Amino acid sequence: METLERLAELDPVRTYPQRGATLIAGLVGAHSFRLDRPDTDPLSSESALTTTDPTISLPLRQGRTLLGTLHLEIVGDAPTGTQLELLKWASRLYGRGLDYAERLGDEGGRRPGEAVEETLRRAPLTPRERDVVSLLVAGCSTREIAADTGLTVSTVNTYLKRIFSKLGVHSRVELIARMAGTATIPPRANYEAPLPD
Known about the structure:
This protein is an alpha+beta fold. The chain contains eight helices and four strands.
């Protein structure tokens, strides 16, 4: 479960595909992996697949759209029922993250800084929550946000959970995508209880 949580916390930067695939491979002790996506070169672990038939191939989807396939080579025992179930959930989360990371990488799809500030102003967040989101959008890690705001890392994580709930997002990637303009935020009236500014 910790791996799934860490997968949701990866920042949406250029290294997301590599880091996410590495986390999933580690979930089942995979010896190596290869990520195949359309219109991009395959991405592999440091040690390449040694066989042409990987042990497990995970389709990566966002909704019904197939984004690619993650091939894992496992040396030793094949994953059991619980591990397979975790892999299924990890591949779903990873697919969503890949989609958002790709859209964030498209500079033409981002809003200018003023539009991000306007979106943040309209969001039903407290001033401290807005500070946390602003720092996250600026590329700060959890530790950097804690240092800048004078909060503990645990408190920053608590704020992030509240923010996710209020905005109806499931990960940092999705939150940043909403703020950057690659996914929309519903109007304020759609929230359960709008907070005062």
